[in-house]
From TrEMBL:
Keywords of this entry: Hydrolase
Gene Ontology CC: cytoplasm
UniProt-listed SUPFAM superfamilies: HAD-like
Stretches assigned to coiled coil: none
InterPro entries reported for this sequence: HAD-like_sf, HAD-SF_hydro_IIA, HAD_sf
Keyword Hydrolase belongs to the record: yes
NCBIfam families: HAD-SF-IIA (TIGR01460)
Any one Gene Ontology molecular-function term assigned to this protein's record: phosphatase activity
Protein name: HAD-IIA family hydrolase
Keyword Hydrolase: yes
C-alpha cells in the first residue's frame, strides 16, 4: 500500500515520461453526466472509480448507461487492467448489471497483446502475471509464467509485466539484477502507479516499471492510458467527432484524453481522489479537465 501523497509525488516526478498536458480545460461543474451528455457523440469510460468500485457498480451507473444508449451515444470502456482477460471483464460487468458489450471494452491488456510484437517480434516473454493467468487471450504470443517454478528467469527474452499481485521488493531487486546483467526489452500492460482498493492504494505495474527504468536505464514500453495506442483502439470505428474521456485520475485518464484530443471529465467522489478536494491536485499538476462531476 502507498499513501496518496507518495503516489502523487511519483506521478509528478515521472511527468517527462507521460504525454504533455493540453491547454487547461474550463473545469465546468455539473451534477451528473446526463446533464452534459448532449454535447457529445460518445464517451470513453474509465472503469474503476467511474463505473465500479471493486465488484460493486457505482450507484446510478447502470441507469446512466441505459439513458446514454437511448440518446444514441457511443460507449466504450477504456480500462488500465491487465491481470485478467477482456472476457473476464465482461463477466464482471454482467454480474454488476452494467449493460456493456465485449466489443465495447478495451483493456490495456488487449492493447498490449495487439502491439507487443511491434516492440520485439517473436520474443519469448517471461510474464509477471496473476496466479491464475493462463494467457488464454495471448493468441500466437510465446510466453511463460516468470513466477512459475520451472523456468529460470534467464530463459525470458523479454519481460512482460501484467500484474503486480505477486510482485514485491525482493522480486524487483532480482529482476533489476537480471536485467542489468543482460538487458532485455520490458513491456508493461498497466501504466497505473497505484490503484485505489478497499483499504488503500495498491502498487501497480507502472510503479515498478518506472523504478526499473531508474535502476537499469531500460525504457519499458507501456500500453494503456495515458499513452496513445489505447485511445487509438478505443476510438476506432466510432461515429462522430465529439468524444469525452471520463475518469478519476489526472495522470492517466485526463492527461491521456487530452493528448488524444478528447474532451475530459474528472469524477471526484469515487476512485483516486475519493474524500479529497481535487482542486489543489489539479492546480499543482496543471492537468485541468473540461468538466468536473462528483459521479456519473
Ligand atoms: Mg480509475
Amino acid at each position: 500500500m502507498l499513501p496518496l501523497s507518495e503516489a502523487w509525488t511519483r506521478y509528478e516526478a515521472i511527468r517527462d515520461r507521460l504525454p504533455d498536458a493540453a491547454a487547461a480545460g474550463a473545469m465546468r461543474h455539473a451534477e451528473g453526466l446526463l446533464e452534459i451528455a448532449d454535447g457529445f457523440d460518445g464517451f470513453l469510460f474509465d472503469s474503476f472509480g467511474v463505473l465500479n468500485v471493486g465488484e460493486t457498480a457505482i450507484p446510478g451507473a447502470a441507469e446512466c448507461l441505459t439513458d446514454l444508449r437511448r440518446r444514441g451515444k457511443s460507449i466504450r470502456v477504456l480500462t488500465n487492467a491487465a491481470s485478467y482477460t477482456g472476457d473476464a471483464a465482461l463477466a464482471k460487468y454482467q454480474r454488476m448489471g452494467l449493460d456493456i458489450a465485449r466489443d465495447e471494452i478495451v483493456s490495456s491488456r488487449d492493447v498490449t497483446f495487439a502491439n507487443i510484437d511491434k516492440v520485439a517480434p517473436n520474443v519469448r516473454w517471461g510474464a509477471i502475471a496473476a496466479d491464475d493467468d493462463i494467457f488464454a487471450d495471448a493468441d500466437d504470443l510465446r510466453m511463460f509464467d516468470l513466477l512459475g517454478d520451472s523456468q529460470p528467469w534467464d530463459d525470458a527474452e523479454g519481460i512482460l509485466f501484467l500484474s503486480s499481485a505477486r510482485w514485491d521488493e525482493e522480486r524487483q531487486e532480482r529482476l533489476v539484477a537480471s536485467l542489468n546483467a543482460r538487458p532485455r526489452p520490458v513491456v508493461v500492460g498497466n501504466p497505473d502507479l497505484v490503484a485505489p482498493r478497499e483499504g488503500g492504494l495498491t502498487i501497480e505495474p507502472g510503479f515498478w516499471a518506472h523504478d526499473l527504468q531508474d535502476r537499469t536505464g531500460i525504457r519499458p514500453v507501456l500500453f494503456g492510458k495515458p499513452y496513445s495506442d489505447a485511445f487509438d483502439i478505443a476510438l476506432s470505428g466510432l461515429k462522430g467527432s465529439r468524444f469525452a474521456m471520463i475518469g478519476d485520475t489526472l495522470h492517466t485518464d485526463i492527461l491521456g484524453g487530452q493528448a488524444a484530443g478528447l474532451s475530459t471529465i474528472l469524477i471526484t467522489d469515487h476512485g483516486l481522489f475519493a474524500g479529497r478536494d481535487t482542486a489543489p491536485f489539479i492546480a499543482e499538476s496543471g492537468i485541468v479537465p473540461d468538466f468536473v462531476l462528483p459521479s456519473i
